[in-house]
Write a structure and sequence with these properties.
heterodimer; A: 626 residues; alpha/beta; D-Maltodextrin-Binding Protein, domain 2; 3 domains; five-stranded mixed beta sheet; four-stranded mixed beta sheet; 49% helix; B: 292 residues; mainly alpha; MetI-like fold; 73% helix
C-alpha cells in the first residue's frame, strides 16, 4: 500500500467514523424514546383508579410531543447520515432539544405517577407511611467473617421493609487494607453507600480516614439525626470524647459505635506454680522479677527438666510492644505518648524514667527469665507456647486465655493448672499503670449522596430500631427459638435445639451485625458471648471475672491517639524508634546516658520534634488537651 | 587435552547437579513444612509445635475436612470454576484473533495498534479509572467485572503474536489459494499448529483467574458470588481473630494447620493441571520468543 492509498483509506475511515457517529446518536434517540414509552406504560396502571388522571394525560401528551420532536430529529439525522454536513450543527441542536424535552416529559410523568399513587393510596384509605420503601445500602464488617451473609429471605429484611418502610441492602465488606481500598474506590467514584462503616488497615487511622472523606465533601453531618434516635444515643452514642473525635468544624460527621470491649487484656500468672514453689503473688516489679527467676530456675512444673521460663511475650506494637507495657507502666511511661501526663505532652522516650524501664527489661532478658524467643515469635506461636506450659507470667487477652475453645487445649495438657489475674505491679517510684487503652471503636458515616436523596431520616429510623425493637432479633435471633431471656435479663440457650441456638455455627449469618451495630457491652451480652463453664477437673471458669479484674486496673486513656496524624516518614520513624529500643534491650547497643542521648538525637533527626508538635496541635484542635 | 576436557565436563556436571540439588532442597523443604503443618493434629501442635517429621500414625486431615465441610465451600468452588473457565475462554477468544491479526506484518496501522497496546502495558491507569469504568458499565455484582477488564493481557498477546509470526507464510498462502478466508485459515491452519502456545497462554490465564482475589472483593457486593480465595481468606481471618469470636468453629484444629490446608487446597487444581500442560511449555513460550 503506498502513501496515497493510505491517505485515502484514512479519509475513508474518517468518513465512516462520522457516519458511525450519527448512527450512534440515532441509537441514543431510539433508546430515549423507548425509555419514555416505558415511563408512559408505567403511568398507565397507576392512573387506572378513578382519581384525577388529568396530570397523567398531560404527561403523556408531553411525552408524545417529545416523541414527535425526536422523530423529526431522527429523520434529519438519517438525512445527515447520507452526507449532508451542513445540517449537522442544526441537527445537534435539535437533538439536544429533543433530549431535553424527553427529560422534562419523563420528570413530569414521574411526578404525575407519584401524585396518582398518592391519590390512590388516599382513596384506599392507607396510612401516611410512604408506599414505596426507601432503598438503604449498608456496608459494614462481619462479626464472623467466615460465616457469610444472612440469606435473602431473612425475616429481619421483611420486618425492616414492612415496619420501617426501608429496603435494606446489607453488604459485608472485608476487613483491613482490602476493605479500605474498596471504600476508597467507591469514594473516588462518588458512589459511597448510604450508610457505611469506616475500614482502615490500621485501626487507629479510622478517625483520620473519616476526616479525609469529610474534607472531600463526601459525608453528611449527622447532628440532625441524633434527636431522631433518642434510645440509641443513650446506649451507643453516649461518650462525649468519642463524639468529639468525629466532630469537625462544629458538626458531627460520624456515628461512633462503642469499642468492642475496652481494657480486655491483662497480666496473669500460673497459681499452681506459685503454690508449688511456696511463693506469693507479686505486687511490685521487683517481686515480679524474683518470681519470674524462681519460675525459670526452680522447675515449677516438676518434670525434672529445665524447660520453663518466668515470663512469656512477643513483640506486638511499637518498641518492644504492648505485651511489656506493664513494666513501662511501673516506671510511669506506658506506651509511646504520655497521655497519663498531658501537661507536658510528648513522646514517652523523653522521660528520664523511660531508659530506666528499658534497663529493667534488659535485666529480665539478660537473666533469661523471659522466653528468649520473644523477639521472633508471632501471636499464634506465643499462644501455642503457654498452652505447652513454657512460661508462668504473661500479658494476654482475657478471651484468648479463658474462652472455652481457647482454654481447652491448655486444660487438656495441664488439668491441675490455674491462671489468676495480677494487678498492675508497682515500680520503684510507686508508679503503676496497667497499659494504655486505645478503644478506637468503630465509626459509621452517612454519605452526602444519601442526605441529598433525603434518606437521613430513614437511616435514623433504622438505627433507632436496631437499638430498640430490633435489638434482640439482630443480636441473638427469635426469643424462644434461638435464645431464652432469663428473668435477670441474661441470655440462655437451655433446652433449645442446639442447631437453632444463637451461638451455633448455623445461626452466625443471622447475627452478623451484632458486633458492629447492635451490641454495646452490657453484662448480659458479655456473659452470653463468654459463658461460664467447668474445666476438666471441675473448676468453675468465669471469663467475666478476668475481664472485670482487668478493667478495674489503672489504665491510661489513650483514645486521643486517633487524632494524631502519622508523619510522612512514619515507616522510617517507627523502624528507628522500635529497633533502637529493641537493640538496647537485647544488649546489641550498650545502654548508658550517652547512647540514650544519641538515640534521642537520632529520633530528632527523623523529625521527632515536628511529630510531637503536630500531635500536640491536633490534640488541642480536637479539644483533647486540657 | 581431550582427557582434561572430559574431566572438566564431569566437574561441571557435578557442580550443576549440586547446585540444582541445593535449589531443589530450598524449594522442597518449605513445601514439606506446609504439608506437615496441614496434617498436624491439634494436640501435637499445642505440645510441640510443628515437627519436621510427623509419625505416619499421627497424620490427620482434620484441617481439610474443616475447610471442605464449610457450608459456603461448594458455592465458592463453583464461583471460582465459573470465573476460571469463563475467564480463560473469553480471554482466549479475544487474544487469539488479536494476536493472529497483529502477526500479519502487512496489517495497516499495525504499529499504531502495537504502540497503544504497549502503552497500556507500560503505563497503568491505576485503580480508580478502572473502577469508574466497571461501575459505569453496571458490571458490579457480575462475574463479567472480574473477567472482562483483564481479558486481554498484552504480554500474552505479544508472546502469541510472535509464535504466529514464526509459522511459515507459505502455509497460509496455500490455504488462501484453496479458497479459505482468514477465519478458516486461523481455525484450520494456524490453530492446529499452535496447540502449545494456546495451551500455555490458556494456562497463564487460568492461573490468573483462579487466584484472582482482589477484584471480586472490589466489584462483588453479593457475598454469594465470592470465589474460593475470598472464602478461604474469610475463614482464616475468623480463625486468627478467634479471641474476639466467642463461638469458635475450629476447636479441633490449629490456625496454622488451617492456613496450610488452605494454601494446599487452592494450589491443588493448578498443581494437577501443570504437568499435563508443561510439556508444551518449552515449545510454547520459547518458540514464541525466538525470532529469525
Amino acid at each position: 500500500m503506498n502513501s496515497r492509498e493510505i491517505k485515502m483509506s484514512t479519509q475513508n475511515s474518517i468518513k465512516g467514523e462520522r457516519k458511525l457517529k450519527s448512527k450512534k446518536t440515532i441509537w441514543f434517540v431510539v433508546v430515549g424514546l423507548m425509555l419514555s414509552a416505558l415511563v408512559a406504560a408505567a403511568c398507565g396502571p397507576a392512573a387506572l383508579p378513578a382519581v384525577d388522571t388529568g396530570e397523567v394525560e398531560a404527561a403523556r401528551e408531553a411525552a408524545a410531543n417529545a416523541q414527535a420532536t425526536a422523530d423529526a430529529a431522527v429523520a434529519a439525522l438519517e438525512a445527515a447520515a447520507e452526507g449532508d454536513q451542513e445540517a449537522r450543527a442544526e441537527l445537534e441542536a435539535q437533538l439536544a432539544e429533543a433530549q431535553a424535552a424527553l427529560e422534562t416529559a419523563k420528570a413530569e410523568a414521574e411526578a404525575a405517577k407519584a401524585e396518582a399513587e398518592a391519590a390512590m393510596a388516599e382513596a384506599e384509605g392507607m396510612s401516611a407511611a410512604p408506599a414505596e420503601p426507601i432503598d438503604i445500602t449498608l456496608w459494614s464488617l462481619a462479626t464472623v467473617t467466615e460465616a457469610g451473609p444472612p440469606p435473602d429471605d431473612w425475616v429481619a429484611y421483611d420486618i425492616i421493609r414492612d415496619e420501617l418502610g426501608i429496603n435494606l441492602k446489607y453488604v459485608i465488606i472485608p476487613p483491613g487494607g482490602d476493605g479500605e481500598t474498596k471504600l476508597n474506590a467507591s469514594a473516588a467514584s462518588n458512589s459511597l453507600p448510604d450508610l457505611f462503616q469506616l475500614v482502615t488497615a490500621n485501626r487507629t487511622e479510622l478517625r483520620n480516614s473519616l476526616f479525609r472523606f469529610y474534607e472531600l465533601g463526601l459525608l453528611a453531618p449527622v447532628d440532625d439525626l441524633m434527636p431522631l434516635m433518642p434510645e440509641r444515643v443513650k446506649t451507643h452514642y453516649n461518650d462525649p470524647l468519642l463524639i468529639d473525635l468525629v466532630t469537625f468544624d462544629g458538626h458531627q460527621y460520624g456515628l461512633p459505635e462503642p469499642p468492642a470491649i475496652p481494657k480486655r487484656e491483662g497480666l496473669v500468672i500460673r497459681k499452681d506454680w506459685l503454690d508449688k514453689l511456696g511463693l506469693e503473688a507479686p505486687t511490685t516489679l521487683d517481686e515480679l522479677f524474683e518470681v519470674a527467676k524462681a519460675f525459670t530456675e526452680q522447675d515449677p512444673d516438676g518434670n525434672g527438666q529445665n524447660d520453663t521460663y518466668g515470663i512469656g511475650a512477643f513483640i506486638e506494637g511499637p518498641g518492644v510492644g504492648r505485651r511489656f507495657n506493664y513494666m513501662f507502666g511501673a516506671y510511669g511511661v506506658p506506651g509511646v505518648w504520655n497521655f497519663n501526663a498531658p501537661e507536658n505532652f510528648g513522646l514517652n522516650v523523653r522521660n528520664a524514667q523511660f531508659p530506666e524501664a528499658v534497663a529493667f527489661l534488659k535485666k529480665v532478658v539478660d537473666e533469661k527469665v523471659v522466653d528468649p524467643d520473644w523477639p521472633t515469635l508471632n501471636k499464634d506461636e506465643f499462644r501455642a507456647r503457654w498452652k505447652q506450659g513454657r512460661f508462668g507470667i504473661m500479658w494476654e487477652d482475657f478471651a484468648a486465655l479463658t474462652n472455652k475453645s481457647n482454654y481447652t487445649p491448655f486444660d487438656e495438657n495441664f488439668p491441675e493448672a490455674e491462671w489468676i489475674p495480677l494487678p498492675a505491679p508497682t515500680g520503684p517510684n510507686g508508679d503503676a499503670f496497667y497499659d494504655v487503652y486505645v478503644g478506637t471503636g468503630q465509626i459509621f458515616a452517612m454519605s452526602q449522596r444519601a442526605a441529598d436523596e433525603g434518606k437521613g431520616e430513614a437511616i435514623a429510623r433504622l438505627l433507632e430500631w436496631m437499638a430498640t425493637d430490633g435489638y434482640y432479633l439482630l443480636g441473638f435471633g427469635d426469643e424462644g427459638v434461638n435464645f431464652i431471656l432469663t428473668e435477670d435479663g441474661n441470655i440462655s440457650v437451655e433446652g433449645l435445639d442446639p442447631a437453632e441456638a444463637y451461638n451455633s455455627p448455623e445461626r452466625q449469618p443471622y447475627t452478623q451485625m451484632r458486633n458492629q451495630l447492635i451490641f454495646y457491652n452490657t453484662p448480659a451480652e458479655i456473659n452470653a458471648r463468654y459463658p461460664t463453664y467447668e474445666t476438666i477437673n471441675g473448676r468453675t471458669m468465669e471469663p467475666m471475672n478476668f475481664l472485670g479484674f482487668f478493667q478495674e486496673q489503672p489504665w491510661v486513656d489513650g483514645r486521643a491517639v486517633q487524632v494524631i496524624p502519622a508523619p510522612d516518614n512514619a515507616a522510617d520513624f517507627d523502624r528507628f524508634y522500635s529497633e533502637g529500643i529493641i537493640q538496647f534491650v537485647l544488649g546489641q547497643k550498650e545502654l548508658n546516658d550517652d547512647t540514650w542521648a544519641e538515640y534521642l538525637a537520632g529520633l530528632d533527626s527523623l523529625g521527632a520534634q515536628e511529630y510531637e508538635a503536630a500531635a500536640k496541635q491536633a490534640m488541642e484542635e480536637a479539644g483533647l488537651l486540657k | 587435552m581431550q582427557h582434561t576436557k572430559t574431566r572438566d565436563a564431569v566437574t561441571y556436571q557435578i557442580l550443576v547437579a549440586a547446585f540444582l540439588f541445593v535449589v531443589l532442597v530450598i524449594i522442597v523443604v518449605p513445601f514439606w513444612r506446609v504439608v506437615v503443618t496441614a496434617f498436624t493434629p491439634l494436640n501435637i501442635y499445642t505440645q510441640q509445635g510443628v515437627p519436621f517429621f510427623l509419625s505416619p500414625f499421627d497424620w490427620t486431615a482434620e484441617a481439610f475436612s474443616q475447610l471442605l465441610s464449610h457450608p459456603l465451600f461448594p458455592k465458592a468452588m463453583l464461583n471460582s470454576l465459573i470465573i476460571t473457565i469463563g475467564g480463560t475462554a473469553v480471554s482466549l477468544v479475544l487474544t487469539i484473533p488479536l494476536a493472529y491479526g497483529l502477526s500479519n506484518r502487512t496489517l495497516p496501522g499495525r504499529r499504531l495498534i502495537l504502540l497503544f497496546m504497549l502503552f497500556t502495558f507500560l503505563f497503568q491507569t491505576g485503580l480508580v479509572p478502572v473502577y469508574l469504568l466497571v461501575t459505569g458499565l453496571k458490571l458490579t455484582d457480575n462475574f463479567l467485572a472480574i473477567i472482562l477488564p483483564p481479558a486481554v493481557s498484552v504480554y500474552n498477546t505479544l508472546v502469541m503474536m510472535s509464535f504466529f509470526e514464526g509459522i511459515p507464510q507459505e502455509l497460509k498462502e496455500a490455504a488462501r489459494l484453496d479458497g479459505a478466508n482468514e477465519l478458516k485459515v486461523l481455525l484450520y491452519v494456524i490453530l492446529p499448529l499452535s496447540k502449545p502456545i494456546v495451551l500455555t497462554i490458556g494456562l497463564f490465564y487460568a492461573v490468573y483467574f483462579w487466584n484472582e482475589f482482589f477484584t471480586p472483593i472490589l466489584y462483588l457486593n453479593d457475598n454469594d458470588l465470592m470465589p474460593l480465595p475470598v472464602l478461604l481468606r474469610n475463614i482464616l481471618i475468623s480463625a486468627s481473630f478467634n479471641e474476639y469470636v466467642e463461638f469458635n468453629a475450629f476447636s479441633s484444629t490449629s490456625i496454622e494447620s488451617l492456613k496450610a490446608a488452605g494454601v494446599l487446597l487452592t494450589m491443588l487444581p493448578m498443581l494437577v493441571v501443570y504437568p499435563w500442560i508443561q510439556r508444551y511449555f518449552t515449545k510454547g513460550t520459547l518458540l514464541g520468543g525466538v525470532k529469525e
